[in-house]
Amino acid sequence: MAFDIVTKNTIRDRFKPAPRPDVWKDVPDKDWNNWIWQQQKRIKTMDQLEKVINVTSDEREAFAKSHEMFNMGITPYYASLMDRDDPNCPVRLQSVPSAGEIVFADTDLEDPLGEERDMPVQGITHRYPDRVLFYTTHNCPVYCRHCTRKRKVADPSSSAANKQIEEGLAYIQAHTEIRDVVISGGDPLSNSDDRLEYICSRIRAMEHVEVFRLGTRNPVTLPQRITDNLAQMLKKYHPVYVHTHFNHPKECTLEAFDACAKLADAGCIIHNQSVLLKGINDKPEIFKELNHKLLMMRVRPYYIFQCDMAQGISHFRTPVQSGIDIIEGLRGWTSGMAVPHYVVDGPGGGGKIPILPEYVKSHVGKKWVVRNYKNKEFEYIEP
Ligand code: SF4
Questions:
Q1: Which among 85, 182, 201, 276 has most CB atoms closer than 10 A?
Q2: Beta-ladder partners of 369
């Protein structure tokens, strides 16, 4: 009887599939659910986009002025989450060019995180003593308008060639202090399963490497990419951590749920890294809903990044206070598991710096006066 109750009300039932716009309603499911079909049918022009949404004149103008600097690319699946009439739709703002992209603020930086400076060989950023970022491709299913690596992503001429992959692997092999490898991009799941397995197997064979992570937005923008084949392949190379990038509850669909379930069932540990984006998720209640959904999807909210000072994304940047207010609105008001770290990535290569609301009211000698989430004060005396 108890089993009946559980099976009739699964968590999965709380997630809804992406609605399929008219333009794709006759596409057979076998194509729609195929990641290669989704990649091949990506929206790259305004004419294609107009078949899905009512494009505004501002969006059309922004596309004309920006597409040579940063391509547009949107999978049919992700486009199906867009509101047809609302240009402020959070999915639309993340994937369709807008006027702010062509405005470069004086404070914008070409390489905001100083990744090139800490690049001992092409394709490896080695900043911290025991871990590296390893770029394996510069392709992504959707080119996020807020991308901090705009300078490289979507530029096919900057993709990692086999020679670069070999040099990266040789660097990791030679540096025995590296125990953690972040396989990144672009999106590493833009690689074929075979190429990805080659990279994973080479890294796993290095005795000094303990863990590796895949930094991927595919569960959000192309969940069809998480196939049984991919999940079973990753299972061979544990511990595998997957760091994904959901920014808004609207992205938590049934397809995304199933993609994360496949990874979690295969033993991957999934964390989410959101970016704080003006007009998209800069409210505590949005993050609360997002993080609750992520926990149901077996994804642990891990970071909220303050939007970087990269060129052409200043229109997405919020005051730092917005991030502090979000943490203030989460901590204590919901499960600790739903409270990520809010961090500023130190411009120029300072690394992730956590920022918290002030919970210490005073500290004299052994006496600490601290406050809780309801602003009630408590004294803690040290031994
Ligand atoms: S998936 Fe990541 S790397 Fe690719 S465009 Fe989006 S933010 Fe940039």
A1: 276
A2: 362, 379
Global pTM?
Answer: 0.94
Ligand 1 center from residue 233 Cα (angstroms) = 23
Q: Are 199 and 240 in contact (CB under 8 A)?
A: no
Pocket of ligand 1 (CB under 6 A): 140, 143-144, 147, 149, 153, 185-187, 217
3-state secondary structure of 180: strand
Determine the pLDDT at residue 160. Answer: 65
Could you give the CA distance from residue 185 to residue 216 in angstroms, rounded to a whole number?
8
To which residue do tokens 């871990």 refer?
131
Identify which of 10, 9, 2 has the alpha carbon closest to the alpha carbon of residue 261: 10
Q: Give the N- to C-terminal CA distance of the chain in Å, as an integer.
A: 53
CA of 146 to the centre of ligand 1 (A): 8
Residue 292 structure tokens: 């609750």
Give pLDDT tens digits for 320-337: 999 999 999 999 999 999
Could you give the C-alpha distances from 148 to 111, 127, 168, 284, 309, in angstroms and in order?
A: 8, 17, 22, 23, 8
**Torsion angles phi and psi, residue 257, rounded to 5:** -55, -50
**Paired tokens of 157:** 């001429």
Q: What pLDDT, on a 0 to 100 scale, did the predictor assign at position 141?
A: 96
Asked whether the CA dihedral 204, 205, 206, 208 is positive or negative, the reply is positive
Apex CA 234: angle with CA 34 and CA 261, to 5°? 60
For residues 335 and 15, give the distance between their C-alpha atoms in angstroms, rounded to a whole number: 21
Pairing relation of β-strands 377-381 and 367-371? antiparallel
Q: How far apart are CA 200 and CA 181, in angstroms?
A: 10
Domains of the chain as residue ranges with CATH: 15-102 (no CATH), 124-354 (3.20.20.70)
The total of other beta-carbon atoms located within 10 Å of residue 238's CB is: 14
Confidence bin at 185 (pLDDT 50/70/90): confident
The closest residue, in CA terms, to atom 3 on ligand 1 is 186
Q: Say whether the peptide bond before residue 239 is cis (omega within 30 degrees of 0).
A: yes
Kindly list the distances between the CA atom of residue 375 and the CA atoms of 200, 245, 329, 359, in Å, as whole numbers in the listed order. 48, 32, 12, 9
Which residues are annotated as catalytic?
127-128, 131, 140, 144, 147, 149, 308, 345, 352
Two tokens at 106? 């004086």
Q: Out of 36-45, 117-126, 184-193, give the one with best mean pLDDT.
A: 36-45
